[in-house]
């Protein structure tokens, strides 16, 4: 029988005691995902806005909440902390958790700067705790299937990897978020926020590192208009709200076009944008091999398209009985019950917890992205910025 996720394992072991820092969009998704993993207990949450922390603890039935994560670390007995805060807070929180000897699972990107991510990797030489970065897309069943098929040679040698990650939530000059503030989001934006997922997933599918990039970064709006007063607060119509708008200079990329080279010479190209009308979370990857191509669309996550020349193309659905070992392990629902984004997040966290439960987190190779990988991807983002500034290829 093929191996699939062992849902019983957790129940036979001591429960993992978990704390979550940052309970905005993704923090709440982590809470839901963790609750689908046996052998876990979310004992406390921390959010700098205490009203948010209180609301989430009440709504999601979590016993204790804090406004200061340091107090949570001091007062609670925790096995694992999830860092789900904006990028600027990743380094100090990760550092504090590691220094307490607690396992750390951090959202991407690993830190605000590569100096910070390098420091974290150094620190882990001293503190042997499990460390993971939530590059969740690699944990999709059909991304795993792509890796399985590239590995078993069924598509032949892969000669080109390409993809796009397109969104429209920042397409108006009145759209604004902490990700646009370099002090909170970092110097790179679309390349860091969504490009980093592309880098990780390509490296995962091919098993090869990206070693060179040539990037063009596009800032569509050098000035954005930020509302200083919320529409609902003003009690006024939209015209009056215009009076409460502040202009903010933007340096980071709304979009990026990136040529890339993998360590075995495989060539690739990425189209990344957060200003592409109509696109929501349109992350797609294509692996072109000598015998066949493979295409995966995140918005139809349970399918894989196999492109053939001499026979009809195939659309394969996630079904454990006919996938490679890699894909079937992650096909956790019966065929026809689509596995998707939430399942991949659960699997990302589950694979990290499995390594903790088994003690295998000390091994160099892991199925989840470690801080080492997170740091490498920070370097790739930096390389894209340098490449754009110098108008040339940058090798890593
Ligand atoms: N893997 C994914 O698919 C994915 C998707 C979305 C976001 N993310 C990542 O998750 C992180 C958070 O993004 P988000 O969209 O949830 O942001 P968000 O703004 O919705 O939520 C962030 C929360 O963190 C809180 N916070 C800020 N500073 C804090 C501190 N020092 N201590 C405690 N709480 C603090 C904020 O009050 C807010 O509630 C980012 O790193 C982002 O890149 C990942």
In short:
This protein has 396 residues and is an alpha/beta fold.
Secondary structure blueprint with pairings:
Layout: H1 9-12, E1 16-21, H2 25-34, E2 40-46, H3 50-59, E3 64-66, H4 69-75, E4 80-83, H5 90-99, E5 103-106, H6 114-126, E6 131-133, H7 141-151, E7 158-166, H8 182-185, H9 190-206, E8 210-218, E9 223-227, H10 231-234, H11 238-241, E10 245-249, E11 255-262, E12 267-273, E13 282-289, E14 293-297, E15 303-307, E16 314-317, H12 325-330, H13 341-358, H14 371-390, E17 394-395
Parallel strand pairs: 1-2, 1-4, 2-3, 4-5, 5-6, 7-12
Antiparallel strand pairs: 7-13, 8-11, 8-17, 9-10, 11-12, 13-14, 14-15, 15-16
The structure holds nicotinamide-adenine-dinucleotide.
Nicotinamide-adenine-dinucleotide (NAD) binds next to helix 2.
Oligomer: single chain
Percent of sequence in beta strands: 15-25%
Low-pLDDT windows of residues: 1-11
Hetero groups: nicotinamide-adenine-dinucleotide
| The CATH homologous superfamily of the largest domain | Dihydrodipicolinate Reductase, domain 2
- CATH-level-2 architecture of the largest domain: 2-Layer Sandwich
Q: Strand order of the main beta sheet, please? A: 16-15-14-13-7-12-11-8-17
What best-fitting shape do the alpha-carbon axes yield?
Answer: globular
Spatial gap, N to C terminus:
42 Å
Largest sheet: 9 strands, mixed
